[in-house]
Structures are given as C-alpha cells and as structure tokens.
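User:
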Amino acid sequence: MHWINWLIVVVYLAYVIVDGVRKSKDTDTISGYFVANKSLAWWVVGLSVMATQLSAVTMIGTTGQGATDGIRFVQIYFGLPLAMVILGVTIVPMLHGSGVYTAYEYLERRFDAKTRSFTALLFLLSRGMSCGTILAAPAVVFSAIFGLPLVWSVALIGIPTVIYTMIGGVQAVAWADVKQMVLIIVALLAVMVVLVIQMPVSPNDALRIAGSTGRLQAFDFSFNINETYTFWSGVIGGTFLMLSYFGTDQSQVQRFLTARSVNEAKNSLLMSAYWKIPLQGLVLVVGIGVFVYYQFVRPPLLYNPAHEAAVVADRGSAYSALERRYSDAFTLRESAALAVADADEDTLRADAIATFLERDGEIESLRAEALALAGEVTDEATSDVNYIVPRFVLSELPIGLAGLFIAGVLAAAMSSIAAELNALATASVIDFYRRWVNPDALDSHLLRVSKGATAFWGIFACVVATYAATLGSLIEVVNRFGSFFYGSILGVFLLAMIPRAKGWGAFLGLISGMTTVGYFNFRTDVAYLWQNLIGAAVVLAVGIALGSFGEKSKSEA
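Assistant: Predicted structure:
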C-alpha cells in the first residue's frame, strides 16, 4: 500500500486514541469508568450505539454480503424501529432509573442471584464470541495487505485495542465512536462516488444489471421459517433480535445508561430507529456496486490473496488452466452484461438477462472449482466473501481514498472492540467479582480488577478471531452467535415485567429456552432469526406457568 495511505491510517488512529483518552474524565471511580457518571448527551450516546453496530464487520462482511447476495440482508433490520419504540417505554426507563451498572444486576433485584448470574454468564459467552468475530474482520484486511498469518494480524489489532480500552473507560469509547461514524459514512460515500465515476455504464444500467441477478430484491414476502432473509423473519424474528440486543445486551445497555436522563436515553435509541436501515442499505449498495464494477473489470479468481498464492505454489498448472477458462468466461459475461445494459425492449432485455445469468453461472461455477482447489491445498474453509471489498479497495481505489477506507475499517474495529471489551469487563466485575468474590471492595480495587478482566476478554476475543474469518460472512456469524442466546435472555427481562413471575420460574425458563434454541439450532433448518422468537416464547411460557410456584419474587417480598 502506498505510503500516503499509510500516513492517513496512522494519523487518524493516533488522533482517535489521543483525543478519546483526552475527553475521558472521572475514570478513577466505578461510576465514571463504566457509565460516565450519566453525563453524556443523547446524540453522543446515539452515535455510539450505532457505531457499535457499524463495525469493521459491517465494512467488510456486510459489503461482501451485498456483493454476493444483494440487498435482501437489509430485511433483518425491518423490526428495528418497532423494537426501539417498545424499548423506549419498557426496558429503558426500567434500567436507567434503577441505578444499576449492568442490565443483569437488575434481575437480582427483581428475581434472585442465580437468575442474574446465569443471564450474565450467557451474555459473557455470546458477546465474547461476537467480539472475536468483530476483531476478525480487520484482521482479514491486514492479512490481505501484509500477507501475514491471520493470528499475527489479530494480535496486531487486538493488543493495542485492549490497552486503549483499559485506559480510557466508557467515555473514551463513546467519543471514539462519534469519530468512527463520521469517517465510516464519508468513506462509504466516497467509494460510491468512485464506483459511479469509474463504471463504464450509467447508474441506471448498473442497477439494471444488478437487478437482473436479484440483488436489488429488498422484500421477500414468503413465509418460510427455514429462509433467513424474508420480510416476516425481519419484522417478527428481527424485532425480537433487536429487542434483546439493544435492551438486554450489556454492550448496548451500557450506552444508554451513560445518558443524562431517561428521555435522552430514549432519544439515543430513536436515532438508530431512524437511521440504521438507510445506513445499512448504503453499506449493501456499496457491495452491489463492487459486484457490478467487476462485471467490466476482471476480478481475481480467488479474492483471498493468501489462498491464491498457496494454490499457485502447489497447483500452478491446474490453476493456470482454470485461470484461462475464467478469462474466457469473463469476456463472455462482460459482453452479456453490456447487452443487458443496452437492451431497450422488453423481449430483447429478457433474452439478454437470460444469457447474462447463464454466463454469470459459468463464472460462479469456475470460482467454486477454484475455492475447492484452495480448500484441498490449504485444508481450510475457503469462503472468500470477506475478502471481496478489501481486495477491491487495495487494487482499484485511488491513493488516499484507499487509506481513508482502511482507516475507517480499523477505527471501526478498534472502537467497536473497545465497546465490547468495556461491557464484558463491566459484567465480569459487577455481576461476578463484586457480587460473589469481594462485595466490599473499594473503587480503586475494582478498577484494577476491571482492567484485568478487559485483558482476559481481549485474549479470548483474539482466540475466537483466529478462526472466525473462515466461517463465512462475518456479519452472519455475529448474528448467529447472538441469536443463539438473545431470545432466551430477552424472555427473562420480559418476565421481569410480569408481576406473577418468580425467581425459579425465570431461572428454569431460561434453561428451557436455551435448551430449546439449541435443539432448533443444531437439529433443524429453522433460520437463526426465528430462534430469537422461539427462545423468548419458551422462557415466557415456562416462567408464567411456574409463576404460582416457588419463592416470592423480589418485587413481592
């Protein structure tokens, strides 16, 4: 990469770290370190909430998802506005006004210690794994740039981020998130401008080509619980996913707990309700733009440079023969794509689209052969969806803009990882160490323990990251990890709003919910979005059924 690009990356990251720490204050107390003494403005909290989601996974995994699968992924967010409204009148005032540091601390006040600890443990497992996946995304970029083993790329990003998180506290994380959001949006818009300028066809023709492959189909109204991305899975399953993520996941709860008041906490979530879907659409459209661009500029047969190099070294002649077939097929597909763009009558357009889809199928078949060859050589999973956009950025973007995009990816990764690590440390210290080990510890001692917890979860995330990049689309991996836990956790918080629910009912309901979700996850083809609804429903059903048994709840005592 050109030295100007490196200069942009280094200067921006240094600015984010230095200015983020400079803006942090009162981090010598638990309240200041974990919830900023409830002093942050709603717009800072709102941008932080959105930035935690718009991570490096979004920049790499979601854009790659758009390139390979189109815009239909956006349906997962159709339940977000409804979820934010529901949270604004239920969980947000309940938690913000309770004086807790974690969402799970509230569960002991409402139910009992075992329900609190089990729920917090599930959060630590789910968010620890998701944090590793978020770390894997920029590691993919570094691996592609330097040719380093993935484990070294993970360490290169993870170690500085752990150190930054240990020093800055939640205020430094929040202010870094504000800068991250600005840079991400600027970088995405700049890439779109470059794509439009460099595309050899008009934007209207580009949309026609993308539409012919189904990549612009944003709505699927079929009701099939085995299909992941449909309107109904997004509105129903997605609502439960968003309710749990934004309302019970400590990484998000900790954000609105830093707001000055309940109303400002509500406003911070409503910002996501208004802007998340358009932003997610922009991210996916960038990926679709890269797909169309590669109809006219020959893309690599393998997007992963490390796998490409390994195959060339081990199976050079076979790969060269495959490359020649690929070049011939690309020329035919390019002509077919131009024919789709030029067709001005419905009959001609239908014939042109049919030919284009046939040629595109031949390309995908050749790429499947190449991926299979790479799998034989490397003995690794070879899905390269996460390498599509990094490869495009490094090979096609002009000097300066490539550095801006890479800086955006790394800044997004660092701030998102920092937010996750801060939440993991908070839950570890408040829900386990202070609750079970040292209830009378001073703030100074708890702060030292929290920094040690941050280091532990940073190492855990690095371990997960070393294999997460091989699991397929990173954005899907994150949501699959979350959906395994989120529905059941949400069910417990919903039970907390039902007066008759008791501690044993909540605890056994949580176990039942996790068991049921585990069955559907490993033994059926039910799409992961529906697992959020299933988990919540089972916890509610068991908890309500056992509501008349066992000890009285805290609220009734």
